[in-house]
Amino acid sequence: MNYRRITEKIANYLTPTEAYTFVCLAFKSDWETYESNVKQQTIVEYINKHAYTGKDRTSQATVSRHLSEFERHGLLTKKSTDHFGKLGYFIKNKYQLETEHYVFIDEALVKLPIPNELKGFLILVKCRCLNNTNFCGYSSYRRLSEVLNIGKTTVGKYLKQAIDLG
Q1: How far apart are CA 26 and CA 99, in angstroms?
Q2: How far is CA 149 from CA 5, 66, 106, 122, in A?
Q3: Backbone angles phi, psi at 136, to 5 degrees
Q4: How far apart are alpha carbons 37 and 110 in whole angstroms?
């Protein structure tokens, strides 16, 4: 599948960069159950594969921080299990993403040649659109900045960037 259900709740808690990481994790999850056994390094590689510039590249420490934020806000649950294999002891994490009250995000967004932070902003805006539409009826930058908890100047910067990039 080329789309995933993303809980609208992310717009209450996440920054654009965190929202983008959340969507990338969703694309590395089972499309029906939204469970994932993905390694953090695999998420890093997926994000970096679609990075617009070197500035958009991410690290495992950043992904780990983002996963902690998702868990803290109830956007996912994590279960860790101990494993012993040929190479020794390791911990395996299983993530279950929250999908209640969701919007659909197409994987084509991940692949767009635009900055990851802008992708995350567009994801957050989509979470604030009217049900099953791409209509976001906020009449000002100020109002949109309030509902997204992002500064008005930053909202203006992202909107200008989105328009400039088409």
Answers
A1: 10
A2: 22, 17, 24, 14
A3: -120, 105
A4: 20
> Which residue in 75, 61, 62 sits closest to 29, CA to CA?
75
User: Using CA atoms, how far apart are residues 161 and 81, in angstroms rounded to an integer?
Assistant: 43
What pLDDT score was predicted for residue 1?
A: 56
Give pTM, 2 decimals. 0.86
How distant is the alpha carbon of residue 3 from its chain centre?
A: 13
The string of pLDDT tens digits covering residues 72-119 is 999 999 998 888 878 888 888 899 999 888 999 999 999 999 999 999
For 111, half-sphere exposure in the C-beta direction (CA atoms, 13 angstrom radius) is 6
Cα dihedral value 62, 63, 65, 69, nearest 10? 130
Q: List residues bridging with 77 in a β-sheet.
A: 96
Domain definitions of the chain by residue range: 3-164
User: How many CA atoms lie within 13 Å of 70's alpha carbon, on the beta-carbon side?
Assistant: 28
Which residue would you say has higher pLDDT here, 36 or 89? 36
Q: Identify residue 106 by its one-letter amino acid code.
A: D
- What are the residues whose beta carbons fall under 8 Å from the beta carbon of 15, sequence distance 6 or more? 120, 150
